[in-house]
Amino acid sequence: MWKVKYIITISMAILLLSACGNEKSQGTGEVLLYEKEETASGSAIQQEEYETTEVRQETYKEEYYDSAELEYTDTETIYIDDEDAVLDAVKVKKDQKINKGDVLAVYHVETSKTKLQKEKILVQQARANYESGLSNLQNALSQAENELMTVKNAAEKKIKQLEIKKQKEEIANYKKGEKDVIDQEKNYAQLVRRQNKTKLVAKKSGVVTSTGKEYVGDEIDASKKIVEMRSNNKWVLKVKDPDSKLRYNMDVSVRLGKNMKDYQNEVKGKVITAADITGVEETDESGDNIVYVEVSSADKKKYNFEKSNVYVYAVSFAVKDALVVDAEAINQEAVEFSNKLYVNVLENGKIHKRYIVSNYNTETEYLVEQGVSAGQTLAILR
Predict the structure, then answer these.
(1) Listing from the earlier edge strand, what are the strands of the sheet with 103-109?
(2) Which has more confidence, 68 or 223?
(3) Is 188 helix (H, G, I), strand (E, B) or coil?
């Protein structure tokens, strides 16, 4: 009976405070009667300030979304591999589409007359030495063949025939060495030609990604990039995945538009590389995981990925009819040798402590397996 009177007394005090204009602000700081569910009848009743939230029943989705960029997989860099080369002009510009055989740049080689004369003498000497050696071998063979015609003895004739066969093999092997002489002559001829304008020509079609126009007029060494280019449709989407929600072979949505929600086109994509398959995580400068997504060749041709904002959306897992509770409504306490989770259920103006079981949570939400039901109001005590 004392307990009931006490409650009435507190209730009247609240009414008086309200009448005097001292009402608590809406949403937070309200006064209520707080009674723990497991306390025995007759235990103390206390006042608490609280906010409320509801237990929601919904299809819970663990979502991933972020912007993506194109990373081209078929690239080529063009260099000048000549000594004393001077870049005269770059004939292409960034983002220009080019075809196989198009002229990319023009250069010439500055070689002194002394060096040219020396190279010429070396080439002429190599040719002369080759021709002289071949002539000597051929003369020796001709002489052996003439001598064979005069030999009568069968045994001596057999020996001479073997000698001639060996000489012919020697000449055949010697002639193989002419290739080195020919290569030397070609190099010299190219050196002479490159004193004038020499063209760098594209070996395949693609798009220019950068040029070395700043080197025009300079002497170029083999380390300087003259033109970098890529193939049009040979690329994958590169995305950051800090929370490792994307897994190898996962289906994702690729969206093209202003932003993730305001998009004009959506196509299917698939995660093609991740730490799951390589065993090694690739990270960017900030330490975020990098994952690659592939789209079909047909979609690459149909949509202009190069000129669009690209986004990747995926659902890493979903739970139908899940009971979802805001994380700030979840409390924890030590019970015997373990930690237990509980919530404060608001029923009929009183707060009851309820232990719950959760099988998954994020920083903002918990999925609850046992302990509450959909639509229940929970108090968040401050």
Answers:
(1) 198-201, 103-109, 85-90, 219-220
(2) 68
(3) helix
